[in-house]
Design brief:
The complex is a heterodimer of chains A (108) and B (487).
Chain A: H1 5-26, H2 30-51, H3 61-92, H4 97-107
Helix pairs in contact in A: 1-2, 2-3
Chain B: H1 5-9, H2 13-27, H3 32-57, E1 60-63, E2 74-77, H4 79-109, H5 114-139, H6 143-161, H7 167-198, H8 203-208, H9 214-231, H10 240-245, H11 249-271, H12 277-280, H13 282-300, H14 305-322, H15 333-363, H16 374-377, H17 379-393, H18 399-413, H19 417-441, H20 457-472, H21 478-484
Antiparallel strand pairs in B: 1-2
Helix pairs in contact in B: 2-3, 2-5, 3-4, 3-5, 4-5, 4-11, 4-15, 4-20, 4-21, 5-6, 5-11, 6-7, 6-11, 7-9, 9-11, 11-14, 11-15, 13-14, 13-19, 14-15, 14-19, 15-17, 15-18, 15-20, 17-19, 17-20, 18-19
Classes of the chains: A mainly alpha (108), B mainly alpha (487).
């Protein structure tokens, strides 16, 4: 079987999905897990784009519309995940400005 | 399409009204509670009209803006979809009334109310957005639109989960978000395979034409795993108890009663065609059986009431999946059993979580051991909790009884004895953990602790109304079953 460009891109997309999946489970850090989900999403988008070339010379607009919408969703969910990560980090460590205030109070 | 344009255009309102409400609540920060109540009542009204239309006129279909698929968005309301919209409307209205009292009591009880006010300002827009997304999910006609609704449901649920602001709820919400994203991306990959196999995104076409070719099997496997992750079916349930138990009281009820039903409903939609059910329908049934038993044991060993109720959800999700092998023949009793489990669990579990949240607010803790005597302070909530438990156990005449009756009689008629046995054993196990909680709540001990604050009456009575509805569902069974027949 000849390796046509669309098949190559499709397989690459699926591989990216699997790599992201592995990283999601193995990465010890939350930021790593968020990036892993992003890589999975990129893999799926690449796979969907190759579907547009599936049959004949006409390019199917539906997968392209799906990818555009999917990118918007992916960006929004990444933003929510990053905001949540900031909240977790802020809750985990004691606020940095507190000891400083104590020092100021002592000085005053 | 032989429907008049007026009646089919009505489908958009159960989605548009709560969406508009979310925007108004977000902008009108002075009195979000008032706006929230108003839009919840209107949403409930539009959903009821939709249910009545489907019941009287049959399946409705609407193309948004007149654009036809595949590029346009089509909405479709048949019996099961309308029933889920109605379930969300009724349970949602009860939860809305509770939330009003909940935030009012907390603001009245604490003069340093800055944090509570901020919580309330975020709660109403997120809750209405979640409601709109759920209705969109139930009414969507194409699977890509369903993916978008799934993401909207997930993002707004995560927002609601973190509202309490406690570190455990933040960590639980992060895990919930990652699991949810994994689930929806797996779903999206499945959507891609479906499009490759069928060249269409229409759910109605795809769920009927499930010929077992390799791309279709791949697509169905991906979609199913994604949805099982989101529904928290065993062994994917690990994220659910901490996320549901650490949230604010109304949020726990929303997540447990409504959100998991969204992804479960989609699972049903993809499998209803029955093509592959005979071969692999046993898989969800087996996982469901394990969930029933494992969830019940976990629920029994919990020390906190909200954790007990959350693990009870894990067990009840099992019931939502055990009946899938019964869908193979087209008689419809298997489908009726599934949907009856869903709607009666929705009312009963919302009532139990709302009552547990009232106990927590009144006492400042929810340790089951120390709850004895709470019925003196909160008689109505205690009664609501017990009634919810009655429906979960499946005692007659509750909705849970009808669901179990349909399931067991259908399983026996198909010679699936083990399935009937699991359902009955599960009922017994449910009784064990429900009695453990209820005996503590209703025990005649005197409570030594002082109540922390005055609880609004609407918090007690809304929980009771939902619990009573879970019981009444057993008596008014013909109405939901007639709606399910419209397909």
């Amino acid at each position: 079987m000849a390796l046509s460009p669309s098949l190559l891109y499709g397989l690459t997309g699926l591989m990216l999905f699997v790599i992201g999946l592995a990283a999601l489970f193995t990465s010890p850090q939350l930021l790593g897990k968020i990036l892993a989900v992003n890589i999975m999403a990129s893999g799926i988008f690449l796979f969907l784009i190759t579907l547009a070339h599936g049959s004949g010379t006409l390019i199917d607009p539906v997968p392209q519309a799906m990818v555009l919408t999917g990118i918007v969703v992916s960006v929004s969910s990444t933003a929510v995940a990053l905001a949540l990560l900031c909240r977790i980090e802020a809750a985990a460590r004691p606020p940095a400005h507190l000891p400083k205030k104590k020092d100021e109070a002592r000085q005053g | 399409m032989n429907l008049s344009p007026d009646s089919s255009a009505w489908i958009i309102w159960p989605v548009v009204v709560p969406l508009l409400g979310a925007v108004v609540c977000f902008l009108y920060k002075k009195k979000p509670r008032l706006a929230g109540h108003f839009f919840a009542v209107v949403t409930c009204g539009t959903s009821t009209v939709l249910g009545w239309q489907v019941l009287s006129q049959g399946v409705g279909r609407h193309l948004l803006g007149g654009w036809s698929p595949p590029l346009g968005i089509s909405l479709r309301a048949d019996g099961p979809a309308a029933l889920m919209v109605m379930m969300t409307a009724v349970t949602g209205l009860g939860i809305t009334l509770y939330s009003g009292g909940y935030f009012q009591s907390r603001l009245a009880g604490d003069s340093q109310d800055h944090r509570f006010r901020a919580q309330e300002q975020s709660f109403w827009p997120l809750w209405l957005l979640l409601w709109a997304a759920l209705n969109g999910l139930f009414l969507s006609g194409d699977i890509f639109n369903i993916y978008i609704s799934l993401e909207l449901v997930a993002l707004s649920s995560v927002g609601l989960t973190v509202l309490s602001g406690k570190p455990p709820s933040l960590v639980a919400a992060m895990r919930y978000l990652l699991v949810s994203l994994l689930g929806s991306l797996t779903f999206l990959l499945g959507v891609g395979f479906f499009y490759k196999a069928h060249g269409t995104l229409e759910l109605a076409v795809i769920s009927k034409a499930l010929a077992p070719t390799p791309p279709v099997i791949m697509a169905l496997a991906l979609v199913s795993v994604g949805l099982m992750l989101k529904t928290a079916l065993f062994p994917f349930h690990f994220w659910l108890p901490p996320a549901h138990a650490n949230a604010l009281a109304p949020v726990s009820a929303i997540l447990s009663a409504l959100v998991i039903k969204g992804s479960w409903y989609l699972f049903y939609r993809f499998w209803q065609g029955g093509g592959l059910l005979a071969a692999v329908g046993i898989v969800p049934a087996l996982l469901g059986s394990v969930a029933i038993i494992w969830g019940a044991f976990q629920a029994f060993s919990q020390q906190r009431l909200k954790m007990l109720v959350a693990y009870s959800t894990v067990a009840q999700i099992g019931y939502l999946f055990v009946a899938f092998p019964l869908l193979v023949d087209s008689a419809g009793q298997g489908r009726d059993a599934l949907f009856y489990f869903a709607i009666s669990h929705s009312c009963a579990k919302a009532a139990m979580f709302l009552a547990a949240g009232t106990f927590f607010l009144q006492l400042g803790h929810d340790r089951i051991r120390d709850l004895a005597g709470v019925r003196q302070l909160l008689p109505v909530s205690s009664f609501a909790f017990a009634l919810g438990g009655v429906s979960l156990m499946g005692l007659p005449p509750s909705g849970g009884f009808i669901a179990k009756y349909l399931l067991v009689s259908k399983a026996i008629s198909q010679d699936l004895w083990w399935l009937a046995l699991i359902a009955v054993v599960g009922s017994g196990l449910t009784a064990v953990y429900v009695f453990r909680a209820v005996s503590s709540v209703l025990s005649p001990h005197l409570l030594e602790e002082r109540p922390l604050l005055v609880v609004a009456a609407s918090m007690q009575w809304s929980a009771l109304a939902l619990a009573l509805l879970a019981i009444v569902l057993g008596i008014m069974a013909p109405l939901p079953l007639a709606l399910l027949e419209v397909t």
